[in-house]
Amino acid sequence: MSNYSIKHFEEYFQVYRKSIRDPELFWEEIAEEHFVWRKRWNSVLKWDFKKPEIKWFGGAQLNITENCIDRHLRTKGDKTAIIFEPNNPNEEALHISYKELHDRVTRMSNVLKDKGVKKGDRVCIYLPMIPELAVALLACARIGAIHSVVFAGFSSTALSSRINDSECKVIITSDGSYRGSKTIDLKGIVDDALEKCPCVETALVVKRINSEITMKKGRDLWLQPLLDQAIPHCEPEIMEAEDPLFILYTSGSTGKPKGMVHSTAGYMIYSAYTFKNIFNYKDPDVYWCTADIGWITGHSYIVYGPLANGATTLMFEGVPSYPDFGRFWEIVEKHKVNQLYTAPTAIRALAKENISFIENHDLSSLKVLGSVGEPINEEAWHWYNDNVGKKKSPIVDTWWQTETGGIMISPIPYCTPTKPTYATLPFPGIQPALMDEHGVEIKGNQVDGRLCIKFPWPSIARTIWGDHQRYKETYFTAYKDMYFTGDGALRDEVGYYRITGRVDDVIIVSGHNLGTAPIEDSINEHPAVAESAIVGFPHDVKGNALYGFVTLKETGESRVHENLRKEINQIITEHIGPIAKLDKIQFVTGLPKTRSGKIMRRILRKIAGNDINNLGDTSTLLNPEVVDDIIKGAL
Ligand code: WTA
């Protein structure tokens, strides 16, 4: 039996049982056999969910880039590490070997060092999906700097608040980005953001679209000439196991985004181990995850997990619809992709298009299909299985979170029998629990509750940057001695899990987490708006879309409302980004409130979802009369 590579269902159970019986021994064996260390650990695990404090492999020293690059050079130096497929299909794809990746990463490491970046400093990365993005992460990791990638679809306000929160010293960006037939002025967004970021000393700019941009003297530098001058050798910084590797912001149900901090050793082990098993990766497979590296999926399953396994990982710069809806299938055929990892929202969008887009391409290389980011509905699951996998590629519906660092509940392909809409079983080392509203664990099968995790796993986020108290309150307070996920789940008769969705005020739109509070806060800044409440409602492509109920300081005519709708979405785009735009905006005379003044979102959610026959008891509201008005005006 090999713990590292699980081959059949019985073996999964054996490995799982072992991981629960003696977690320390289990993870220690994996750490020992599959990674390179500069110094061995003193203890495998120390933890206390009350504080909370979690330490894996304390005392060990390593550098993650030695594990992701250097150690492969001898045996796989010429193997392709990264395939870069550009936005424009007529531009040539790049095949970057492990040797070349080493060259690029060490050069960029030296550029960063030259700009004064030291171990522990934060570097913001705001780049499109081009090779420099992956290289930038690894260059930071090489020199011990903490990277904070901000998805390049966020607005300048969102960018500046993230830069300031973690006080980044340097930002790596580009002149612009390609997105289908459009170009986006990334540097302009960065310039706006940096006006509010005194902490940033240097902006390193990649030339991608050759646009006219302004370079601020003393701050902005073109990256390429610096890379050309740098030497392709850089000793890796020796890191402690628990040193932070990166910060990645995720939306919370309240307040500002949470900078989740991931540490080095545990994250490396868990992302690598899950990658190997959940994608059944075997040399020389070509693996493609369509996520953006701006999200956790890209960190763990485009960069670190695949490279730690010496895999070939494909990065795609573009969008599924350009030049037409056959683009994904063209890429699968062209690069003979073996594992495809994408999101339900992309599957639903592609399923709406003519089937000939798929039929024109040879997809026979595919062996495993992955799904992530939100619950996959039955129809999308079957469409994916029938048309993309031709019923012979298992679907791995992977449940996890930015906070968990790696996949937590998922089938193992060719091992776990799949079941549509079910993420199935916990990965080795993961101990899920379903809890009732009184904080009691619900045992047995055919039950549902709130999903918690009872025991630490190596890649759990260690804190929220600068706010450990918030970390404790958000994840470790609702249920005693448990990590609370914020999701609801059910467990079927054989123990398979199905994630039913968020139970807090986070709404998942097209696979992106959006907190309602920051959106409401930005709308409320419009001078005409008195108050607002955002809820989600079902949408056939995005999964959920956003519905805003807005009260105005003075009620105007409906003619004005159209303009107001545009202005509100404009404000949201400026504060957060276009992903948070509202699909529907209803102007109402009042929002339903409890006697203590809290907005009753439950009622608004039902109205938005057109489920008005069971609104429950509204008589206890402070203002029950508004409910009928809202129903009458519902969009
Ligand atoms: C949701 C993405 C159902 C869930 C990796 C979680 C899912 C949130 C699934 C985290 C899935 C993710 N089935 N729901 N397979 N995967 N989710 O932080 O609500 O962007 O809490 O991490 O996405 O989103 P995040």
Automatic annotation (TrEMBL):
Domain (AMP-binding enzyme C-terminal): residue spans on this chain: 519-598
GO-annotated biological processes: acetyl-CoA biosynthetic process from acetate
Pfam family, one: AMP-binding_C
UniProt entry keywords in alphabetical sequence: Acetylation, ATP-binding, Ligase, Nucleotide-binding
Every Acetyl-coenzyme A synthetase N-terminal domain range: 12-68
Enzyme Commission (EC) number: 6.2.1.1
Molecular function terms, GO-annotated: acetate-CoA ligase activity; AMP binding; ATP binding
Domain AMP-dependent synthetase/ligase: 70-461
Protein family per UniProt: Belongs to the ATP-dependent AMP-binding enzyme family.
Protein name as catalogued: Acetate--CoA ligase
Recorded name of the encoding gene: acs
